[in-house]
Automatic annotation (TrEMBL), chain A:
Belongs to the TRAP transporter small permease family. Its main location: membrane. PANTHER family: 2,3-DIKETO-L-GULONATE TRAP TRANSPORTER SMALL PERMEASE PROTEIN YIAM (PTHR35011), TRAP TRANSPORTER SMALL PERMEASE PROTEIN (PTHR35011:SF10). Residues 26-156 form the Tripartite ATP-independent periplasmic transporters DctQ component domain. Keywords: Cell inner membrane, Cell membrane, Membrane, Transmembrane, Transmembrane helix, Transport. One of its GO terms (cellular component) is plasma membrane. One of its GO terms (biological process) is C4-dicarboxylate transport. It holds the Pfam family DctQ. The keyword Phosphoprotein does not apply. It is a multi-pass membrane protein. The lineage of its organism: Bacteria, Pseudomonadati, Pseudomonadota, Betaproteobacteria, Burkholderiales. GO terms for molecular function: transmembrane transporter activity. This is TRAP transporter small permease protein.
Automatic annotation (TrEMBL), chain B:
It is found in: Cell inner membrane. This is TRAP transporter large permease. The keyword Phosphoprotein does not apply. Residues 12-425 form the TRAP C4-dicarboxylate transport system permease DctM subunit domain. InterPro entries: DctM, TRAP_DctM. The chain crosses the membrane at residues 6-24, 36-54, 60-76, 88-104, 141-165, 177-197, 225-244, 250-268, 280-300, 320-338, 345-369, 375-393, 405-423. GO terms for molecular function: transmembrane transporter activity. Keywords: Cell inner membrane, Cell membrane, Membrane, Transmembrane, Transmembrane helix, Transport. GO terms for cellular component: plasma membrane.
Amino acid sequence: MQAIGRLLSRLIDSVTVIAGLAIAFMMLHITLDVVARNAFNYPLPGTITIVSYYYMAIAAFMPLAFAEQKSAHISVEVLTERLPPLVQKHLAGWMLLLSAAVFGLMAVRSWQEAMGKYGIKASVVQGEDSLAVWPTYFFLPVGCLLMFVVVLYKFVVYLTGQTSGLDSERKRADSTPAETL
Amino acid sequence: MTDVQVGLTGIGLLLVLIGLRVPIGVSMITVSFTGLWYLMGWNVAWGALGVIPYQFSTNWVLSSVPMFLLLGFICYHAQLTEGLFRAARLWLAGIPGGLAIAGVLGCAGFSSVCGSSVACSAAMGRIAVPEMMKQRYSAELATGTVAAGGTIGALIPPSIIMILYGIIAQTSITELFLGGVTIGLLTMVGYIAVIVVRVKLNPALAPSVSEQVATADKLKALKEIWPIVLVMVGIFGGLFSGFFTPTEAGAIGAFLACVVAFVAGSLSWQRFKHAILETLLTTTALLIIGIGASLLQRFLALSGAGEYVSDLIIGQSADMFWVLLGIVLIYLLLGLFLEPIGCMLLTLPIVLPIISSADLSLVWFGVVLTKLLEISMITPPVGMNVFVIKGVVGNLISTTGIFKGVVWFIVADFVLLALMMFFPDLVLFLPNWGK
Amino acid sequence: AVVGALLLGAGVAEARDLRYAMGFPSGSDSDKAGQAYAAAVKDLSKGDLKVRVYPLSLLNFAETSAGLRDGMADMGYLLAPYFPAEYPHFNLLAESSMQLLTMDERVRGREGMAYVGALSEFVFTKCPECQAEFAQQNQVFTGPAASSPYYLNCNKPVRNEQELKGKRLRVAGSHWSRWARAMGAQPVTMSSNEALEALKQGVVDCVVVSIPELTNLGLIEAVSDVTVDVPGGIFAGTGVTQVNSKVWKGLSTEQRQVLLRAGTVMPAYIPFVYHQREKEILEQVRQRGGKVHEADPALLQKTRDFARQDMQTIVEYFAKTHGVQRGDEMLAQFRPVLEKWVLLVQDVGSREELAEVYWNEVFSKVDAGSYGL
Ligand code: NA
Ligand code: NA
């Protein structure tokens, strides 16, 4: 069991590296575009398309499982925290099935959509040219599938009561899910 | 069941799921998907699940969300923010409650590079609370100050809440930002007034600091804030002189922060990595809620429930004042329990039509809404800023204690809120200035 | 109101409610056109068919194609240029709109009306590939729409080639992009909700868009100089009332006939109102202290030469990128149709008259018993 968890964590780590690169590239790409536009009056062609389709599709969906692993998805505890700990535990366990259903369906659906877009080689107009966007559709099924697997694994861990092996440690003690808004 | 009843049932079910601690995004997707299925058939629900998530996320203006988050995280992890508090502290050393005032000023300064109030609270909490405790300030005052001060983070631009609002309401984000400047600064002034009055009434809250600060030290402290000032000036200067658009400002700011921090020697690879990882966690958590809200909007539109509820609110009274008061009360009530961005995305499909049909300014309402949501960050039982401060200070004080410290600041917020309602120009004069 | 509609709906057994999604906000000209269309459908069908317009509340433009395909809406306002891979043939016809510059003076002030007539006739009768594209996306075409011409809307005078050189122009469309480059300017792509701020702050020097959009997008407050005539060309890639195929097939012949008859309302409404607005808004620009310039004759001539040459570029580009086989032939066939339509719309004085011309010349000849089935 723990071995599976560790393997999953390893998998999440590699997907997270890709997502992290997307964030870093987004920053660099937009900055370069602004500099090139102002200094040389030559905006980099395709910046808006690449940022909004490629980097954003990666940043939105690829870290889903990473956030689940670190319990960073936002929920409201105010009612459940009044319940006895045991009830809380079972409730949280069974509610994982809902997340599994949602992300399982999304994985299947977005895979269909991605294959459809691949079939017609979907693109968008960018300046004088058109830029292929069909590859970006594949980030959704990948991110959703990994999320589905992690949630399902957490459910199995809950059912069997074994140790998870998932790396759920946050780097900082005070990095709460809401360290954000 | 009529379509409207299906819609209303959906809203009820949604609240139940959120109450059962199902993640907000998952709750919204579940309800919208099953609702569309029941109402319009499998094909429509299945179709929506294919179209909306991709189209919502792949949006150019939305790309400013991760970039502004990254800017804030870089500034924090590279410790660009610490100098702000230190400088304010030295300059205010003689004044009663000076450290707390310095905390508020530090929050306001950090706000101009940080888009969210929790991050702002957390950053200042780590820096300012220990200092105040060293000078034997009351723990309630110390923690309350930074919990409340953090709310300035989403009012002074950049602001994630305002960006999301601008996208959904199709209003100018620049104008929202300009409206936020005034309200953010007034919030700051209000909080400082609260501190001054409280310390006047009860000097024991903040024992006066005996240390004599040399002018040379004060000037030296000013020099230490150059990195953050440079980032600030770069963002706002470039924005208003036409070098880049508000959407691009986040990326430019993050890059600038990296360079400045690197030159200042405070950005290690490890810190950069932390900033990126936190950006990822927050981005994906926010966007999945956005996707849920986007789906929910279709469900509410197709069932007619959204229209039904807004008709119900408007229909009760012809007088716009009461309608607005109702909206404010609803947000304060929801704000007691809900996480602010989820709360906003959940309600806008119903509230925006009311605002536009009443011919109210969407910019004004956007700023009022941001203020309302920020108040909800410090009201019990769910007050995100308070929880974060609790996480920072550990066993120093109970959560209830922090909430007690915050009460006084909420009074100041209510005064400001009333001013915003009665004098809309307070919000709008900056955005309208250029026109 | 909704409950009322439901109760009424329950009384008439065969009545059919159609959900019509458009990406424009409520209160916009297109929303008004949509309401006029809905009223026409209701009248013509005697209440048997009802269209309910969802302005920006059901699908935005990026979602419309797939949303319509999957039945989230029964009808939709499709902007085909958003989807170059899905609708290449229709887009080729739309993108060649700069050929309006190479026609005689009679087309001036009527560009949109003539183009809509020609597009309707061509797509309904002479473009099986267009029909196949729509069918592939599970849609039936029941009419196009178009804007008035695209001009230079700037924050400084940009009247001739000298002044154009090096200027940053916000353009949406590859033909305008190529034109900008050919004139020595720099095309910039950005979303329309950023255009105002970009123009105000000088991120761009000009926005290339039709004059009515100056008020629709609020650009007017940042525009000090408008140069008319260039680059010319119109936005024409609109399938204004696309119907989901399954819905279309589920209607009776009479109901389809109603949709075709009412289908002339928006194709007439939108270009007519755009041309009408153009004059009003140019006047507003002047009143606010802005200037309206005519393009320098040399620039206009160079633009015409560009437009002529660009037709070949378009054909080659669509062949290479999207496999459009008979682009040359299509444009050659389209030109005489367009010339005919310039004459047909010459004396039209109201949008009702225009709708009547569209009906008599094109829409009435479409067989509701077989079209799109
Ligand atoms: Na801020
Ligand atoms: Na609260």
